[in-house]
């Protein structure tokens, strides 16, 4: 058994990733990373089995502390391990269930300790522990993907911010900063039909409508960050999630907008990528 090796797990809307993390230096152990697609609309038994299959592969890669830290999307009762996710197109079958108990019942070694942490908070924790954002005391981080994850870092400690439901432009932030907005806005402007953001990012030559969508996103994000800065006076911004992979299409415009509003803070794209949440989750057990 190795006390400094923790299994970090990242639960996404359509996948699970797991890896063993050395929490003394934030490094992921070689050959311990495993990722698989998950049918988030399946029944509870199938979902748990698919998660267990991936976690078990990683746990077998090296001696570990038997501690498991899971980056989980909300809403979720993180302390008690109970899923509160419902009506958002994923994991409805787990609603009201004790996920910790379900996982422990399926693991071959039931001596494991399982903790749950908000996925956006894990992402930011990984970045401020071992990325460029470590140089700042007041940090805000956002994951741009299926949903709009958000977290605040203060003096190295991270808190889930729940900005997804923050009022914004007659709706809430998730209406403007999630993949659903990108897809619907592009389809509206182009008269075409794409099914997800991946299709947009892989087809950057789609021309005018695509650039229009990202320009609009840049403006919206700039407006939101300007509003947020008045309250939190953050020193830097970190962006992650699948949409951040297309940063060349929006980051210059976003930075320019912030400069025009006299907000001279750096905006970083995640330095750890998909590993940020794994590292952050594992470090949360310290």
TrEMBL record:
SUPFAM superfamilies: Actin-like ATPase domain (SSF53067). Pfam families: ROK (PF00480). InterPro entries: ATPase_NBD (IPR043129), ROK (IPR000600). CDD domains: ASKHA_ATPase_ROK (cd23763). Belongs to the ROK (NagC/XylR) family. This is Glucokinase.
